[in-house]
Amino acid sequence: MKIRKTTILNKQEDLYIYENKKDDYFVVAVPVLEWSTYFTYDDPKDELVSRWSESLNEKVGGEEQAIELALKIFGWTREM
């Protein structure tokens, strides 16, 4: 499991990323937002970022911040 620090709601917060290489999937959790997601290696970037930003929009206080966080999550999962 990887832990990344990012600014959420103007505070440094932890974001947790679990990768299961055997079954080709990720689980990402942001405890401070009470938000998590599950996705596979094959899920397309545009679909994931759209889905995540939509679900994060209300939690982070705006569309721009939600898209930024969704893109960070996608980037972090691809660097693992």
Keywords, separated by commas or semicolons:
80 residues, four-stranded antiparallel sheet, 2 helices, 36% strand, alpha+beta
Provide a descriptive summary of the structure in words.
The termini are close together. The relative contact order is 0.19. Strand 3 (about 25-30) and strand 4 form a beta hairpin. It is built from two helices and four strands; from the N terminus they run ββββαα. By secondary structure, it is α+β, with helices and mostly antiparallel strands. The protein has one domain (about 1-80): Double Stranded RNA Binding Domain, CATH 3.30.160. Helix 1 crosses helix 2 (about 65-80).
Q: What structural class should be given to the helix and strand makeup?
A: alpha+beta
Instruction: Kindly state the number of beta strands.
Output: 4
Shape estimate:
globular
| Major sheet characteristics | 4 strands, antiparallel
Overall mean pLDDT: 95
Supply Rg: 12 Å
What is the number of helical segments per DSSP (H or I, 4+ residues)?
2
CATH topology: Double Stranded RNA Binding Domain
Query: Helix proportion of residues, in percent?
Result: 40-55%
CATH class annotation: Alpha Beta
Low-confidence regions: none
Which sequence of strands runs across the widest sheet? Answer: 1-2-3-4
